[in-house]
Design brief:
- Helices cover 75% and strands 4% of the residues.
- By secondary structure, it is mainly alpha-helical.
- It folds into 2 domains: 69 residues, Arc Repressor Mutant, subunit A, CATH 1.10.10; 138 residues, Four Helix Bundle (Hemerythrin (Met), subunit A), CATH 1.20.120.530.
- The protein has a 3-stranded antiparallel β-sheet.
Length: 220
């Protein structure tokens, strides 16, 4: 039996997806902070939509673990204890290291160029002192490494960990110097990945993520 969309149904689903993607991005780059409450009415007004697609977007994000239901009524950006955060980073270390290892084995002229371009964007944003742009550029940089694996399933898993930890990682950037240091930390990682030696690339990413985790713990 073929399913025919009812009038307005496709538009509602499209709105829900648009809102979901926007909130995912904001969680990932720390624009929405851990524990922050998301108000249906406010989101509906902001996105120019009814409350139905807003509810659908929030429901999807809750199912993905990015949002949680609070003890009182409402939906909140997920918060983690230091122990939970360390457990998430432990898993994140493994998938990021695997992505770097596989990317180093499958490098080609296009993926090299994409990683170099993403790094240039990180450096430009950091030099300008634009925190929001730097966070977005940093996420895009790691996405190019995931893409270089040629494995969309690994990329999806790695992206989920970055979304979950985004609000926590964002807190470690308080000054322009912090942004520049973060961008510069990519240089050694790029060198290790471009070596095309899988062990070197994996260790480089582990070192990079260990430093990120320690800085994140201090900030949280």
């Amino acid at each position: 039996m073929n399913y025919q969309s009812k009038p307005g149904e496709t538009q509602r689903f499209s709105a829900a997806k648009r809102i979901e993607q926007a909130l995912l991005h904001e969680i990932g780059v720390g624009e929405l902070e851990p524990g922050q409450r998301l108000d249906e009415v406010g989101l509906a007004e902001r996105f120019g939509a009814s409350r139905t697609p807003v509810r659908e977007a929030l429901s999807r994000l809750t199912a993905q673990g990015g949002l949680v239901h609070g003890e009182s009524r409402g939906v909140f950006v997920a918060e983690y204890s230091r122990e939970e955060l360390s457990q998430i980073f432990e898993a994140m270390h493994e998938i990021e290291a695997a992505c770097a290892r596989i990317a180093s084995q499958r490098l080609n002229l296009l993926t090299r160029s994409e990683i170099e371009t993403a790094q240039a964007a990180c450096e430009n944003a950091a030099q300008s002192g634009d925190r929001a742009a730097s966070l977005e550029a940093n996420e895009a940089f790691h996405q190019t490494i995931y893409k270089a694996t040629g494995n969309p399933f690994m990329a999806e898993i790695a992206s989920e960990f970055r979304r979950r930890t985004g609000p926590f990682r964002a807190k470690k950037f308080e000054s322009r110097d912090d942004l520049i240091a973060s961008a510069n930390s990519h240089l050694r990682l790029i060198h290790d990945i471009f070596s095309e030696d899988s062990a070197t690339a994996s260790k480089g990413m582990r070192d990079h993520m260990t430093a990120c985790f320690m800085e994140t713990l201090k900030a949280n």
